[in-house]
Structures are given as structure tokens and as C-alpha cells.
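Hey,

Quick one before I head out. I ran the complex with manganese (II) ion overnight. Inputs first:
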Amino acid sequence: MHLDALLILAIGLALLHFGFPLAYYCYLKKLWLNRPWDVRGDSEYKPRVSIIVATYNEAKLVRQKLDDIASQSYPKDLAEIIIVDSASTDGTVEVVKEWIADQRDVKAKLIEENVRRGKAYALNIALEAAAGDVVVITDVDSAWPSRDTLASALSWFSDPLVGAVTCLKIPAVGGFVGVERGYRDLYNVVRLCESKKYSTPVFHGELAAFRRDLLVQLGGFQTDIGADDSHTATLIALKSYRAIAVDNAICRELVPGKGYHMWRIRRAQHLIQHFTKAMKLLPKAPREFKLILLAETWLHLFNPWLLLATTAILLYKALTGTAIATILLVAGIALLLFKPYKTWIVTQIYLITATIRNLWTKEIAWKKQEKS
Ligand code: GDD
Ligand code: MN
């Protein structure tokens, strides 16, 4: 048995594919996880806030979502809720109208679009009507488990350097929770460490808060890509403001039971659109952000392809009779029994599929996945 050049290449690519994220994770965790924050949240700080809830066919969940917002401890006189609906066909608007009519001390208004042009477009319409110092975006299929989630998230804006804040995530019950949970554990550590170091380029629709004046300066949310929250946060970080995921605001998200794979692929498509655009701005990034943005761009756009290349080479070598290639392939498959590894591989498959799918559809107005 001897190693030829192709086999060495395959092993090299595999080492890079697995080694880079591992090194990045270890670096972040070791250096940043236990460091104190260098920005400070003041729990007494209470900015005026506009909470925007975009809805498209959310009749089943929207009431619960609005109740959840209304039960927050945040002072009612400092908050307004703006629901922006894009021509839902399932009676969402009626449910929202009823809910608004039932409120006494909650300020809430509904804006109705008559055509659906996607979430970002709807957010921009709501933004025009928003009066808060801070604008919070929250998806209908998400929950804020504590009464203080909003207050905790907003407290960080007491630091004038903080331009955007998002939550960490725990998946709620639903299909494929095993994979989803494995993915989230690693993922929250990365988000938090990136935020302590400088800023994270991945934000969450469960709670994404932005200084309104920065949103206005940016001309609102970009409507030609899907990841409205992450891209906007990144643009804010590029302006030398901090865009952070904070450990005192944890949100829950419903995971779809049916259509889980499509859901993950669509979201990967949006992240790829985001990083493809953000990558071009890398030279302008503040020094502390460069490594983070570069690493995440690499992880989303390029790293998955190394795995594909390794697999292709090993498969070719195995089929042409190289025993060591067969052994490596079988080992790679056997390792799927090990959950973190499986979670990783599945994510790579979503990213690759998403890149290909982006060639013909950007999923700006996406098909809804039913959440349980
Ligand atoms: N007004 C309006 N118009 N709202 C919309 C539209 C639209 O065209 N499309 C979706 N929404 C609303 C949904 O009703 C929901 O409240 C929120 O936007 C998010 O939609 P989901 O269908 O729950 O998408 P998701 O959870 O998979 O999307 C996640 O990824 C997106 C980017 O990939 C979230 O994090 C989103 O916030 C994020 O933009
Ligand atoms: Mn969602």
C-alpha cells in the first residue's frame, strides 16, 4: 500500500475541512468564552422600542406571539408593536385586528401590504412607521421564554458603541430536534465568543434589535437577499459599531416537523447570499472583525466544498482499487454514529445544496414550513 498524490490531496483537504472550524472553535472558546464583556449593559436603560412582527400566513401562531410580547416586563409606554402583513390568505389579518382591539395598555398597529414581496420589503415598510430609538424584529414562530428577555436585550444599547443585539437560541420541540440541538450548542458558543471579541455576522430572527438611526443610514433592510437580520447586523459591525449576540437573552424557535430539510436549505441559501455580499466588504472591516468575517465567510462559502472534494477523490480511489481509500470512506461513514460529527456533515450537505439552489432561486418570498 502506498500513498499517491491524489490520496495525499484528499487527506490534506479533509484535514483542512475539519481542522479549520475546530481550530476556530477552540481559539474562540479558549480565548473569549470566559472573558468579561467589554461593553456593558445597564439594566436601568430603557430606550423607546418599536417591535416589528412580519407576518405571512401566521393565523395559527400570531396570537400567541403577540401575547408573548405583551407579557414582557418592558414598560408599555416605551414600546409599540407594528405588525406588517403581506397579503396573507389564511386570516392572519383578522386575528391580528381582533388582538389589537382587545388591548388596553399595549400600543399596536397593523400595516397591510397588498402584495407579498418578501420579509425584508415588509420590514422596510414597517420601519417607516417606527418611532422607537431601537427597532426589534421578531419572527412569529419564536418565543421569548422570560418576561425580561426584551429588557435584557435592550439594556446593551446603553453603551453607545452597541449598534445591534441578538439573542442566543434554543430549539423548541418539533422534528429532528436531535440534530438541531447538537448544532445549536456549538453554534451558541461561537456566536457568543465572536460577540465578546467584536461582533457576530450571524443574527437571529427570534430577536434582532437595531439602533433605528443606523437602520435609516443604511437605507433599511436589503431586499435582494434573504438574511435580512444577519446582513444588516454585519453592515452595522462594518461601520465600527458592535453587533452582538448576548447571553442574557435566550430565545426559543419552533422547528418544523415537516419540511425540515427544505427549511435548513433555504436558510443556508440566505446565509450564503449574505456572506457572498459581505465578503466583498472584507477589506473595509475593522481590524477586530476581519478574522471573524473571514472565518465565517470561509465556513459558509468554501469549506463545505473541501468535504465534497475529499469524498469524490476517495470514492474514485476506492472504486479503482485503493484499499486505504475504502478504509477511509468506511471510517467516515461509520463516524456518522457520533452525533456532533453527523450534525456537522448534515450541515455541510445543506450548505452545498443551498449554493447550488441559489443558482436558480433566491427564496426571497419563501414557502412556509409548518411549525408544530
Ligand atoms: N410581512 C411578511 N412578508 N412577512 C413574512 C414574509 C413576507 O413575505 N415571509 C415570511 N414572513 C414572516 C413570517 O411570517 C415569520 O414571522 C418571519 O417572517 C420569518 O419567517 P419564517 O417562515 O418563520 O422563516 P424562518 O424562521 O425559516 O426564517 C429565518 O431565516 C430567515 C433568513 O433565512 C428567520 O430567522 C428569519 O428572520 C430570517 O429572515
Ligand atoms: Mn422562524
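The mean pLDDT is 94.

Talk tomorrow,
K.
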